[in-house]
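Need residues for this backbone.
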């Protein structure tokens, strides 16, 4: 069965996100080799997803131990909240020791639950806010470098982690 470009891009991105979740260093140039040719003429959504992944890899490659840990927590938080309806307020024990991305998708974890998996203060959002600022800046820089235009024009009206 032939995989379409969108599915191929998504699977490649998930593979790299899984590696970042495990704390592996991922060279953005490796991401470029595998995914950039697939997204260069793709939809804006595919290009944005690529730039976000590439930016996260760049931050993880050059970031401090704290930044990398916060990125890993954020990946758990983000992916656990894909395809999930909000409103799960009950406390639950979640074993994230295996850190398998595909098992996390859809769990609907709170930031508190994700942070506790790494033993950090779940009430301190300052590291997450710093990570979001770094990601916004890195995404804008990456977009301009790769596509030769300002990302703000492209994503006008899209909220990128403004919470």
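Answer:
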């Amino acid at each position: 069965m032939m995989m379409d470009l969108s599915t191929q891009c998504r699977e490649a991105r998930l593979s790299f996100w899984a590696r970042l979740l495990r704390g592996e260093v991922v060279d953005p140039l490796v991401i470029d080799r595998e995914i950039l040719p697939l997204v260069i003429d793709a939809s804006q959504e595919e290009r944005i997803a690529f730039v976000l992944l590439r930016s996260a890899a760049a931050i993880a490659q050059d970031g401090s131990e704290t930044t990398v840990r916060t990125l890993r927590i954020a990946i758990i938080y983000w992916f656990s909240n894909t395809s999930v309806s909000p409103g799960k307020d009950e406390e639950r024990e979640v074993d994230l020791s295996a850190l398998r991305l595909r098992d996390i998708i859809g769990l609907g974890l709170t930031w508190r639950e994700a942070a506790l998996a790494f033993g950090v203060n779940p009430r301190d959002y300052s590291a997450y806010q710093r990570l979001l600022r770094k990601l916004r800046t890195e995404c804008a820089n990456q977009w301009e470098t790769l596509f030769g235009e300002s990302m703000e024009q492209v994503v006008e009206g899209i909220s990128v982690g403004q919470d």
